[in-house]
Amino acid sequence: PYTVSHSDKNKDKIFIDGNAATALGLLYGGATVAAWYPITPSTSVAKAFTDFSKKYRVDQETGKMNVAIIQAEDELAAIGMVIGAAWNGARAFTATSGAGVSLMNEFIGLAYFAEIPVALINVQRGGPSTGMPTRTQQADIMSCAYASHGDTKHVLLFPSTPKECFEMAVQCLDLAERLQTPVILMSDLDLGMNEHVSDAFEWDPDYNYDRGKVYSAEDLERIETFGRYLDVDGDGIPYRTYPGTHPTKGSFFTRGTSRDEYARYTEQGDAYVRNVDRLTKKWETSKKLVPKPKTRRHPMAKDFAIIFFGTTYYAALEAMELLTTNRIYANAMCIKAFPFNKDVEDFVNEHQNIFVIEQNKDGQLKQMLVNELGVPPSKFISILNYDGMPITADKIFETINSNIKENHPELLSV
């Protein structure tokens, strides 16, 4: 039989689901345009954003909401509206799931290559195709990281809790504008639709939006020639302008075709190479801006580590307690973003036996670690769960325990 006793551990806690937390973060982060198409399990992001806007984003004089919320005819139209709004200077987002991201791929590539900020919320579910709309997975990370054709890489954020949904929704908007690129918040059904006891969110009245590099009319008066895709500061991030900033300066063609530093169409190979190399430099810059991983180290850990991300967080921590009880000690890292920064690279290089926990069939995070960091696949042992239900601590513990006893008894502490 089960018994329940009173607890005071909920002091200063709130009860909220990840989608509502994400919507609140988007509101706090200054989003003024939302375009979306209904799809499980992301629909409640737009619904919650609408409800919060009706309460907190109302013009005192007119009584109308001062945000634009559009239910589009499909996912392609939704992200197209977001790109147009962001190009015009609005903070804009769309929310969808993996099937919607698949439809958005061409526009994601446009935003990447034309360098337009886009905040995209992906509440993952079981795929491919229609898949399992009411089950959870982490199976979209590779398709989102490299979305669209050609050489593309996109910033991904991996929240583990509702509080991180709130915080990373703000970061999603800030990073998109700082880097002038699509940024994708990778939630999932388990986090997005289930209620959680969460730490209270921090609401800083002095928080200022990071609008990134935007020339004002005064800036345009000062500079001799405006080049939309010039690498002025050497970090790969160009300066942009909002439409109408200056009557005669700052205009440019926005295109998905190859162009030179002044946004003039060209298919000259050297101009294309310069542009793509600058985008690569911008990608390297993004490694310094994305959230750092969270690391836990055990003083008795040997050459053995665990890597996880997103909603495997709590199960992984519980599994570590079970391992410790059985005198198996591990260091652990919860990855919070892609690209992987130096902290991730150093952690991987420090260990020779790394279990990677993820909720997909193909070990997508493991593949990305191998490909992006250039480390041998033999370092990693996958712990995979893809039946649509959240992974359990028992499964993680049993997989690690049996693998170590059979293959690496030297890692056991006597």
Concise account of the structure shown:
The protein has 13 helices and 14 strands. The chain has 414 residues and is α/β, with parallel strands linked by helices. The model has no long low-confidence stretch (mean pLDDT 96).
Please describe what this structure looks like.
This protein has 414 residues and is of the alpha/beta class. It folds into two domains: 187 residues, Rossmann fold (3-Layer(aba) Sandwich); 118 residues, Rossmann fold (3-Layer(aba) Sandwich), CATH 3.40.50.920. The protein is 37% helix and 16% strand. The protein contains 13 helices and 14 strands. Helix 10 links the parallel strand 10 and strand 11. Helix 10 crosses helix 13. The model has no long low-confidence stretch (mean pLDDT 96).
SSE blueprint:
Layout: E1 13-17, H1 18-28, E2 33-36, H2 43-56, E3 68-71, H3 75-87, E4 92-96, H4 98-114, E5 118-124, H5 141-145, E6 155-157, H6 162-179, E7 182-188, H7 189-193, E8 195-199, H8 217-222, H9 269-286, E9 294-296, E10 304-309, H10 313-325, E11 331-335, E12 337-338, H11 342-350, E13 353-358, H12 364-373, E14 380-384, H13 393-407
Helix pairs in contact: 1-2, 1-6, 3-4, 10-13
Report the CATH C-level class of the largest domain: Alpha Beta
Q: What structural class do helix, strand and pairing data support?
A: alpha/beta
Radius of gyration: 23 Å
What name does CATH use for the topology of the largest domain? Rossmann fold
Helix content: 25-40%
The oligomeric state of the chains shown is single chain
Quantity of strands, as a count:
14
- Average pLDDT value? 96
Uncertain runs? none
| Intertermini distance | 36 Å
Q: Which strand-content bin applies to the residues?
A: 15-25%
CATH superfamily membership of the largest domain, which one? Answer: Thiamin diphosphate (ThDP)-binding fold, Pyr/PP domains
- Strands in their spatial order, largest beta sheet: 3-2-4-5-7-6-12
What is the domain tally?
2
Helical run tally: 13
